[in-house]
Amino acid sequence: MTAPESDHDIESVIRSGMTETPDFPSPGILFRDLSPLFADGDSLRAVAAALLADHESVDAVVGVEARGFVLGAAAAVEAGLGMLPVRKAGKLPGEVLAESYALEYGEATIEVRPGILAPGARVVIVDDVLATGGTLAATVRLMERAGWEVVGIAVVIELLGLGGRAALADLTSVPVTALIAL
What we know:
Elements: H1 7-16, E1 19-22, E2 30-33, H2 35-39, H3 41-52, E3 60-64, H4 67-79, E4 82-88, E5 97-103, E6 106-112, E7 122-130, H5 134-146, E8 149-158, H6 164-169, E9 176-181
Parallel strand pairs: 3-4, 3-7, 7-8, 8-9
Antiparallel strand pairs: 1-2, 4-6, 5-6
């Protein structure tokens, strides 16, 4: 498969590489799993390229645990950039910055190692889904605390009914790119 030539093509790639699991990880949640897309090299390459297509002058990609690692690394390689992981609490050695936040089904804390990128580095945050915006908002706050400039947020799927884009707009004016909206 070659890179999709239109938004409709990338939507077809994503929809064909996505499964839905009701009541996971808790009752009432419909989990969108992109594992089938990740397993197909051409589809993963197409999505990785599309995630950064609207972002220029970027120094690094930030991948949010865990599916953001796969997407962020693929997008970074596709663009010739490095990828910085944002991890769940307790997974990184040494000095870390931590940020706690609410999920649609609980609470969590994420961490990043400061000093990995140069001060003022321009980053794009990549993840699989924009739901309530909690994880991405916490990641934006972490990047700012670390001294890096967030120039964009890119996700594969935006869940429109959960208000994530509005939550991010209250925090930052950087562009948010979603490849498909559900």
